[in-house]
Design a protein that fits this description.
Length: 250
């Protein structure tokens, strides 16, 4: 069921990143394979003269409908992990603030686009959503790398740190050359990225289940946030093993 949660890097990843910052490199695989679906006000919401509005229930229904659509040839079959991350509020200022934080950790187009559109709608009058959204067909993309961009960044940083560590075991002159290059080109930039990722937290609604998509669709509305919320951005990940994403939900 849905629950209010904090999105952040899990403690194990934080500790390994701190080790890297202290020169103790250790590679960690943060990759995730699978597919994902996303909806937000400006792609699936109801259009009014004051803007676009989408309730959590209608966002969830749009996803649930695709979970049971067996005509979609890319629809995952059998038992899968499902992780939903939702930002939803009544107030557009809170919506923007929460999206900005979530996009640091999960810089997905769903969060980035909805944040940009929300900023442009900020001064428009608020009215409630009345129309159920639709999702394009086919909804599911073929299974692929769905690793969040933040995790891809961390993977790259750890690979660089590992390369330097390997140089220590080899030619010392190579180490010196590599260190100079890393300091000039990447050190400041990587530190800034790491510091931001380590410190960022976002308030979200989270849903985690394992099973057949048809069965999960029946439970997808359990514990859904209030229907009074009119600003909603929802990403649902589907894959064989989403532990790297589940680990970010506290």
């Amino acid at each position: 069921m849905w629950r209010l949660a904090t999105l952040q890097l899990n403690q194990d990843v934080k500790e390994k990143l701190k080790q890297i910052q202290n020169g103790k490199a250790k590679q960690v695989n943060l990759s995730v394979a699978g597919t994902k679906l996303g909806v937000h006000n400006w792609t699936h919401g109801s259009k009014t003269k004051d803007g676009r509005y989408l309730s959590p229930q209608n966002a969830i229904k749009a996803i649930a409908d695709k979970f049971v659509d067996k005509s979609d040839t890319n629809r995952p079959a059998g038992s899968v992990d499902v992780v939903g991350i939702m930002i939803t509020t009544q107030n557009i200022d809170a919506f923007i603030a929460q999206l900005e934080q979530a996009a640091v950790l999960l810089p997905d187009p769903v969060f980035r686009q909805s944040c940009d559109y929300a900023k442009s709608q900020k001064d428009l009058a608020t009215t409630k959503m009345v129309k159920t959204p639709t999702v394009g067909y086919p909804a599911f993309s073929p299974g692929a790398d769905i690793t969040p961009q933040s995790a891809q960044t961390l993977n790259g940083i750890m690979r660089n740190a590992n390369a330097v560590a390997m140089a220590v075991r080899g030619d010392p002159s190579t180490l010196i050359k590599n260190l100079l290059q890393k300091k000039q080109q990447r050190e400041a930039e990587n530190k800034q990225k790491l510091d931001k990722l380590l410190s960022t937290k976002a308030q979200v609604y989270a849903f985690c289940e394992t099973g057949d998509l048809e069965q999960i669709a029946l439970r997808l509305n359990s514990g859904a946030p209030s229907s009074e919320y009119i600003f909603t951005a929802l990403i649902v990940y589907v894959g064989a093993d989403l532990s790297n994403i589940r680990g970010m939900i506290i």
